[in-house]
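ingest -> validate -> predict -> emit
validate: passed (alphabet ok, no gaps, 256 aa)
predict: started
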Amino acid sequence: MAAEKETLGFYITSHPLVRFARELKSLSSPSSVDLAHLEAATGPITIGCMIASVRGTVTKNGRSAGKKMAMLTVADLTGKCDAVVFAETYERVAPLLKSEAMVFLTGTVDRRRERPSIVVDEVVPIDQAIEQLTGSVLLRLPSNDRDFLPRIHDVLVRHRGNCPIMLGIRPASRADVCTFIRPDRQWFVSPSRRLVDELVGLLGEENLALRPKPPAPVSNGGGSGRKFFHKSSTDAGGARPNGGNKESSPAVTRFN
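emit:
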């Protein structure tokens, strides 16, 4: 695929990000964020993308003067934009900043130029995104199969950890109502691709959803001496108790 891009300037087979569609859809925050519509994003963002190019440079002023930083061009399935990695962040993530690398970027949107760009605070390799970015796992269970719960429990026990689980159940007589149950900690899991694949095998792709962790607080520009201020927003980053998108009329019950 890299040869296709180098020779033709675009991918013939398919974009490499396509095989990570689940991560891109589930773990980006806010859930609707993409590079083609950055101007609509408020507060911290987390977005999956491919690094198209990396240009190293040196900070010219501030307390990080003389230290290395990087300017990136990044792309997703909707478009591309520029991103900046200031010195303090660069020191932590430099090994991950490679052309063609697929990553999740966490940061803020800089709107001071004609085209918005991203000020990067954190970089996560896309193949580690499920482990590092999942805040909760939502499972929708069949309403007419009571034998399903022990089978689900067996899978969760094998992957026990600290990530909360939410179980969604639709009564057979009311398909328009979904009750959400939050099990006790004994059901909590350690998110991984293997866990997700096992759950998809039992429930189907449409009955599993990963909810992202709330984005970290807005940074001060990575120690460059430049600060970015944003208005607070109740839905910035989608930080809700269930870690993401709102379901219709959920009734949340805690049980042991």
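DSSP finds six helices and eleven strands in the chain.
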